[in-house]
Amino acid sequence: MIRTIFIRVDRVLSPQKVMRNEQRRFSLGCRRSFCFPDNIHSGGHTIASGCLRFEGLDIQCQDMLIIHERRTLSIACCRDKDFCNENLHPALPPLRNSASVPHSTRPHYCIGVEQDETYFTPGETLKDSTQWSQSTGSGSSFPMVEITIARQIEMVKQTDKGRYGEVWMGKWREEKVAVKVFFATEEASWLKETEIYETVLLRHENILGFIAADIKCTGTLTELYLITDYHEHGSLYDYLTSTPLDPKAMLNLAYSSASGLCHLHMEIFGTQVKPAIAHRDLKSKNILVKKDGTCCIADLGLAVKWFSDKNGVDAAPKKLVGTKRYMAPEVLDKRLNRNHFQSYLMADMYSFGLILWEVARRCVSEGIVDKYQLPYHDLLPTNPSCKDMWEIVCRKKLRPALPSRWRSDECLRQMEKLMTECWAHDPASRLTALQVKKTLAKMMESQDITI
Ligand SMILES: Nc1ncnc2c1ncn2[C@@H]1O[C@H](COP(=O)(O)OP(=O)(O)O)[C@@H](O)[C@H]1O
Ligand SMILES: [Mg+2]
């Protein structure tokens, strides 16, 4: 059995020092703190000291108090100077017999491995691996499979071009994965989004499943990868454009999106803590549709975390961000209280109201369905400015038009009520994600739809 010692250097290295360290595999990754220069194999043990690129793994100093099932790790920590891990020698706990060690025969997914090493047993799927990493007791949403996968992905076709780079459909063995490739200039965005995805307890069926993040250096080119589950239907925007809905399909899309948002917004306390997270760029293009007709929330690049005990937004956002068309009135007129985290959640709820409107328009009632349109399509130019938006949303206090046919359909009538309560001008009177989720659950029940 391979046993692994991880040693963390809890020290920020300057980029120059990082570049000088010839054994570093990632030219950019160590800026934030986690350094791992080498792997030593001795007597059946792998002693790894080097670079851990993400917080929240169960092999990090900050998590040492968590009792792990996996007793194959030992951690020693230091933080007094750069490369202080050179002289650390943590002792491994005594070996338990294999019957009492869960997963002891499984391959070890270790960070800092060489490119050609394979850590998967034949037939093992990504799902198996991510489930295993979740069941290790760390609760981290971050799977321990990242390095090997990132290096073995075959890029198949580009599916989209976004703000910070390109999105590709790739293949890992026979499984499809999505690869968001960030431009090298967008390292900060890649790091930010990765950091959000590796938040402890984030993993949820209605939040895009994170698989790995990696940096690939090919000569002069540096590519930053974010690898997630791939969803063939693409975004909710793509889906609505081409697909009319019946009430069941509409409620499935709405309920699952609300569940994802609810989980994102929710703070969880316990042996582990999940911060509340505001998305800040909710729109139909940032929600994906899964094969079973349910949704997952994606594009967490602008999200912010909040821990109530620390009483502050993780990195106090300097400027107001998001997609103009979906910006809440208080964002447009710059009255959003940036020191009050609930304000961000309420702004998300405004955007969510617009998404419910987009979905409801595509629901057929009495044989009629509306063509897909973006919110405010009839009131704004294609690329509206903040001033255009402010004029419509703040000064005139207009909201998307509600088709008269909705009033003669019970389900659409309730949807109308729900969306108007989400996009209320006064943020404090908007519904919370939990309230929306509960209302939609009741609506599904009355339609005999099982959740
Ligand atoms: N996992 C995925 N599966 C399928 N399509 C995806 C996936 N991730 C992103 N896309 C497509 O790529 C688009 C851009 O992705 P997104 O993460 O929103 O990047 P950006 O930050 O550039 O907006 C989405 O609107 C969607 O159409
Ligand atoms: Mg996006």
Automatic annotation (TrEMBL):
PROSITE patterns: GS, PROTEIN_KINASE_DOM, PROTEIN_KINASE_ST
Cofactors: Mg(2+); Mn(2+)
Protein kinase domain boundaries: 153-444
This protein's GO CC annotations: plasma membrane; receptor complex
Gene3D superfamilies reported for this sequence: CD59, Phosphorylase Kinase, domain 1, Transferase(Phosphotransferase) domain 1
Topology versus the membrane: Single-pass type I membrane protein
Catalytic reactions of this protein: L-threonyl-[receptor-protein] + ATP = O-phospho-L-threonyl-[receptor-protein] + ADP + H(+)
GS domain span: 124-152
One Gene Ontology term of the molecular function aspect: ATP binding
SUPFAM superfamilies on file: Protein kinase-like (PK-like), Snake toxin-like
Enzyme Commission numbers on file: 2.7.11.30
Major enzyme class: transferase
UniProt entry tagged with the keyword DNA-binding: no
Record keywords, A-Z: ATP-binding, Kinase, Magnesium, Manganese, Membrane, Metal-binding, Nucleotide-binding, Receptor, Serine/threonine-protein kinase, Signal, Transferase, Transmembrane, Transmembrane helix
Highest taxon of source: Eukaryota
Subcellular location, record wording: Membrane
GO biological process: anatomical structure morphogenesis; cell differentiation; cellular response to growth factor stimulus; tissue development
Membership in a protein family: Belongs to the protein kinase superfamily. TKL Ser/Thr protein kinase family. TGFB receptor subfamily.
Protein name (Swiss-Prot/TrEMBL): Serine/threonine-protein kinase receptor
